[in-house]
Amino acid sequence: MSDDFDLITIGAGSGGVAASRRAAGYGARVAIFEAGRVGGTCVLRGCVPKKLLMYGGQFRDAFEDAGGYGWTLEEMPRFDWPTLLARKNRELDRLNRLYLGMLETAGVTLVQGHARLVDGNTVEAEGRRYRAGAILIATGGHPVRLAVPGMEQALTSDGLLEMPDLPRRLLVIGGGYIGVEFASICRGFGAEVTVVIRSRHILNGFDDDIRQALEVEMARRGIAIHAGVQPAALEPVAGGFALIARDGRRFEADRVLCATGRRPNSAGLGLEAAGVAVTDTGAVTVDDGSRTSVPTVFAVGDVTDRVNLTPVAIAEGRAFVETRFNANPTRVRYANIPTAVFSNPAIGTVGLAEHEARARGHEIDIYRTGFRPMKHTLSGREERVMIKLVVDRATDRVLGAHMLGADGPEIVQGLAVALNCGATKKDFDRTIGLHPSAAEEFVTLREKVG
What we know:
FAD/NAD(P)-binding domain, about 450 residues, 21 strands, Enolase-like, domain 1
């Protein structure tokens, strides 16, 4: 038996849901297939639960800083991890229901089950076949562990979000944004946290000044970072685990988080049999219109391993729908996409890092400042903000804006608009600052430092 649709979407995460709803809004008959819960990585296993935990961990700072502002706490408030976990899960249930409701309201048919391509127009799920004029793959990605003995005993980010209790000692393997964020979260709840990385510094690919400044702030908060660690094995020991490095170094903890990367969810979809090309890492190969090697099959989001951010997946899904179902050819612009790392303190960044600008051949000027935020003049906390602009010398155009500080992500979202409008350093200079704020430092930078 077969059912006919205009669009079949495989994967009900942010990108797949956004594309399906918009296509249905244009009158297309749409079915969306999901083997798990509707909502995807961001809502259920990533951005949303992670940020809720981040908020929870920041209360410790507020309690510690309160004394500088005249508050007296008779004793440090007690924290209960299961309570936070239950409330976090309640919110995820609410969002899941919201997504289900949005699909129903839009008239999208939801099919629960694992879908597999039969050919460029046919999908099979639970023994039933469905046909459509176009198929959209939006299955996202998943965390992967290092291929070393014993690493299967380590948690991934998915598991850490569901662990029943908070470890006294946490070892984080990996210094990307996931590892850094969870290290900051667990330290905020009082855990002893150690981070081991294979490279020299955390956050490969981010601006060097910002990533190194974050290392200083993490160390101030008691997070130990060990560079140049090549894991050889993970072994169980009394009370927990021991990571053995190739050089003999040994790191023990109650729990271990392996945060060393993610891979596209492309296995088991029948892609190769249907003729859809994938890379060695499983990423679905697409052109700038998200079309795969099969003309009727498209892919968006993390499964393509282009820019693995939720808003990008949504933008790609909507661009595909505008092009195919609304006669409005649309392409996603990948320049000046703002990015945040919800560490403590947080990072907000948009545009080119200094090393990227130089690698692209720009002659650049660097403007940078660091300062103690006003809040901590009374709290006494030793924490500094860093702000940086990368400017093209020939055109005066701002190529990159970077911030390490509590409000960095919120501030940089606004700066992303400016960069996408082609703002120059003179535009920044003639803008009057909002005082007193950390954001005003972006428009008061005057002296070049490089």
